[in-house]
Amino acid sequence: MRIAQISPLSEAVPPRFYGGTERVVSYLTEELVEMGHEVTLFASGDSCTSATLEALWPRALRLDPGVRDVVALHTLLLEHVSRRAGDFDVLHFHLDYLPFPLFARQATPFVTTLHGRLDLAELQTVYAAFPELPLVSISDAQRRPLRQQNWAATIYHGLPENLLRPVPGVVPSYLAFLGRISPEKGPDRAIRIARRCGIPLKMAAKVDRVDQDYFDTVIRPMLAEGGAEMIGEIGESQKAEFLSGAHALLTPIDWPEPFGMVMIEAMACGTPVIACNRGSVPEIVEDGVNGFIVEDETGAVAAVERLDRIDRRTVRQHFEARFTARRMAQDYLDVYRDLVLTGQPRLRVVG
């Protein structure tokens, strides 16, 4: 099958550090190539792929200080894809609603995976204008604000099976926080939970400019009080040791998390997840099996005390059964084939 993967230009594919969407695009692209499909990746020029790379800008926009209008470059990307649309059996967009006006009026089948939150009021009118376009959600929880849309499937993210594994001989000695420092991710709650448990917290996280004030006024003073260490943003090669060394990954979120890649990264390393009951969490975490689902900080403290009930080998097995990139690619191929054969996805009912 001739497949086009169209990624945001904000980060390289895969990104050097943080960048959930672009990492998923990379894992999916590489699996599809390995399965024998002819894949073209539309992405920034510093991307690395075994597919055919169509570079629309020399480097990731986040790393290019000379770029001030990212919408202009994504408009150029869409126009370029539209001129080549006839070369493919199916187009797979990862750009939210941006492709809709142009690609709703061309013949090549296409599907869009939505990677972000959908409960924002301004999105309702945009998606209502394109009710027929096929969409993929990354959790059932994500799609609830837009139940009326033409949902092709819910397809959970996946990691290459051997990308992250438990590191032999590493003895867990701390609690972990991984990802991004922002109020909705709950790093302040993670620090308080670790302190109440009397266990050190290590925080491998980035600070975006939009969250710098929150970090400076809330998190930095908490770090100065001790009990938590900010080690900064880490790359893929560092995650296995970081997560293997943790008693658990703390995910005390306070927002409707669409998926949460850090949770399956921890599971790949055999590390249990303690997460607040928000968004996708009940779909990812099986309470008492690969972690615990909690309602608040007190519940998280109690969950830490029950971690000895979790078998880390079972956590890894749960990852292998549900969250590999190969399973993700196979699920997407089902959607692509439906689109190519009928022009519409086979609708899949979810709760």
In short:
37% of the residues lie in helices and 18% in strands. It is an alpha/beta fold.
Would you kindly provide a written description of the structure presented here, covering whatever features stand out?
- The protein has 351 residues and is an alpha/beta fold.
- The chain folds into two domains: 2-158 and 324-342, 3-Layer(aba) Sandwich (Rossmann fold); 174-322, Rossmann fold (3-Layer(aba) Sandwich).
- Helix content is 37%, strand content 18%.
- The strands form two sheets. The protein has a seven-stranded parallel sheet.
- α7 links the parallel β9 and β10.
- α6 (187-197) packs across α11 (297-305).
- The two termini are 31 Å apart.
- Residues 174-309 form the Glycosyl transferase family domain.
- InterPro entries: Glyco_trans_1, Glyco_trans_4-like_N.
- Residues 18-126 form the Glycosyltransferase subfamily 4-like N-terminal domain.
- It comes from Rhodovastum atsumiense.
How do the helices and strands line up, and which of them pair or pack?
Elements: E1 2-6, H1 20-34, E2 38-43, E3 52-55, H2 70-84, E4 90-93, H3 100-103, E5 110-113, H4 121-128, E6 134-137, H5 140-143, E7 150-154, E8 174-180, H6 187-197, E9 201-206, H7 212-224, E10 228-230, H8 236-244, E11 246-251, H9 261-268, E12 273-276, H10 281-284, E13 291-294, H11 297-305, H12 312-322, H13 325-342
Parallel strand pairs: 1-2, 1-4, 2-3, 4-5, 5-6, 6-7, 8-9, 8-11, 9-10, 11-12, 12-13
Helix pairs in contact: 1-13, 6-11
Q: Count the E strands.
A: 13
CATH homologous superfamily grouping of the largest domain: Glycogen Phosphorylase B
Q: How much β-strand is present in the residues?
A: 15-25%
Number of domains: 2
Judging from the principal axes of the Cα atoms, what is the shape?
A: globular
Number of helices in the DSSP assignment: 13
Domain Glycosyltransferase subfamily 4-like N-terminal: 18-126
Organism: Rhodovastum atsumiense
GO molecular function, one term: glycosyltransferase activity
Protein name: Glycosyltransferase family 4 protein
